[in-house]
Write a structure and sequence with these properties.
Bound molecules: pyridoxal-5'-phosphate
CATH architecture of the largest domain: 3-Layer(aba) Sandwich
Helix content: 40-55%
Number of domains: 2
Strand content: 5-15%
Strand order of the largest sheet: 4-12-11-10-7-5-6
Number of strands: 16
Low-confidence stretches: 172-182
Shape: globular
Distance between the termini: 49 Å
CATH superfamily of the largest domain: Type I PLP-dependent aspartate aminotransferase-like (Major domain)
Largest sheet: 7 strands, mixed
Number of helices: 16
């Protein structure tokens, strides 16, 4: 048997003699033991072509691959890392917590503190339940909505992604949109028939469908700022109508703020829109880079969950001190100053890229809310999933690959969001705009 050192040395010798880079070598090995070489489909680069890159480390706004090349990172672990990679305080919080035990399977102080922080930031959330992923949060939220209302149907919108629970796998965005699979195999008709998928931002359609199914709709679930068909914000009118109709027909309004929560404002998208949802789903940022999700709402609704109520939901590692401490350290660093800084840099990036595209006569349309940026290759506005699908995905792929060679890591799909972190600098943005300018000349 090789020791680790000997194994690494043998690997290096082999790589040198075969002139192969380590990332490709790892990918070949990965393909044999993991489906598509990855543990989440969009990482596979299928949407843009080429091979995924294996990374060794991240620090601040930068990622370093296993071959030593560095990249400015605009994926930020799909938005989770709002402070950038390996933030000192978050890392310290994780280490401190881990040294005192990673999980008790019993209550701890950190989960109380994180729950207090979340409820203080979001007025619609009086109580919260922590889970381990965004998918668990949305899945549990609709179970709660069904249990609370006694109704069956849920309304969702094409292009909004709510994780991979069966009920949501109808015309969804993200990886699903990329692969153009309308419904996943393995999801049975009996489940999907209770999901109504409507067009995003279409007020009339929502009104008509709610009126038609008036007694049957348990919940309307939406991303208030969609981040899984590129970035597409809901219009104020659309959100207000959704609130009004849910009140009228006794359905619950669920905001999936897994991306937008704590990213676009201190209190999430609901603060920007001035609308109180009945249930809010959280994930990504709330875990500070650890696997965490959460759902919350008023006391009156939340008390229907076990052990107080009869809607069952549980989790062995839910609320563990390591993940809770990472989330808490992250949220505690996010004050007004950080949101202003993110807005300033994101504005610079948006306008820099727009100017570079104009100069080179490339048609692009950018949707941006705070540090969520969607770059579409099109000359029209993008307001829903149909618009997003009509944009030039091939141009995006070319842009993506050219930027990659210049050391800028953008999301490997035209239907994902460009995210900034507080560790991105003015210099990072200037370098990115310069790279984009070069890329626009050749695509
Ligand atoms: C990422 C995401 C989810 C799913 O979260 P996971 O942690 O990947 O399960 C749900 N909703 C939205 C809006 C997301 O962006």
């Amino acid at each position: 048997m090789f020791g680790y050192g000997a194994r690494a040395a043998a690997d290096d010798a082999w790589l040198i003699s075969n002139k192969q880079n380590r990332s490709d070598y790892l990918y070949e090995r990965a393909l044999k033991v993991m489906v598509g070489g990855v543990n989440s489909p969009v990482r596979s680069f299928r949407a843009v072509g080429g091979k995924p890159i294996f990374f060794r480390k991240g620090k601040g706004s930068r990622l370093f691959d296993v071959d030593g090349k560095s990249y400015l990172d605009y994926v930020c672990s799909w938005g989770a890392l709002i402070l950038g990679h390996a933030d000192d305080e978050v890392t310290e919080a994780i280490c401190r917590a881990a040294m005192e035990g990673t999980s008790f399977g019993a209550p701890c102080e950190a989960e109380v503190k994180l729950a207090e922080e979340v409820t203080e930031r979001m007025k619609s959330v009086e109580m919260v339940r922590f889970v381990n992923s965004g998918t668990e949060a949305t899945m549990s939220a609709i179970r709660l909505a069904r249990g609370y209302t006694g109704k069956k149907k849920i309304i969702k919108f094409a292009g909004c992604y709510h994780g991979h629970y069966d009920s949501f796998l109808a015309d969804s965005g993200s990886g699903m949109a990329t692969f153009s699979i309308p419904i996943s195999a393995g999801v049975i008709d009996d489940t999907i028939k209770h999901t109504l998928t409507l067009a995003y931002n279409d007020v009339a359609m929502l009104e008509n469908v709610m009126a038609e199914w008036r007694d049957d709709v348990a919940a309307v679930i939406l991303e208030p700022i969609a981040g899984n068909m590129g970035v597409v914000p809901a219009s104020k009118e659309f959100i207000e109508k959704a609130r009004e109709l849910c009140d009228k027909y006794n359905s619950l309004l669920i905001f999936d703020e897994v991306i937008s929560g704590f990213r676009v404002a201190r209190g999430g998208a609901q603060e920007l829109y001035g609308i109180k949802p009945d249930i809010t789903c959280l994930g990504k940022i709330i875990g500070g880079g650890m696997p965490v999700g959460a759902y919350g709402g008023s006391r009156q609704i939340m008390k229907h969950i076990a052990p107080e109520g009869n809607v069952y939901q549980a989790g062995t590692l839910a609320g563990n001190p390591v993940a809770m401490s990472a989330g808490l350290a992250t949220l505690r660093k996010l004050g007004m100053q950080q949101y202003e800084q993110l807005e300033r840099l994101s504005y610079m990036l948006e306008h820099g890229i727009k100017a570079a595209a104009e100069e080179n006569k490339v048609s692009i349309s950018i949707n941006r809310v705070g540090s969520m940026i969607g770059i579409f290759f099109t000359d029209s506005d993008v307001k829903n999933y149909v618009d997003a699908r009509k944009t030039d995905a091939k141009a995006y792929s070319k842009f993506f690959h050219y930027m990659l060679t210049l050391g800028v890591y953008l999301p490997p799909s035209p239907f994902e969001t460009v995210f900034l972190s507080t560790s991105h600098s003015d210099e990072d943005i200037r370098m990115t705009v310069e790279s984009a300018s070069k890329a626009f000349q050749v695509i």
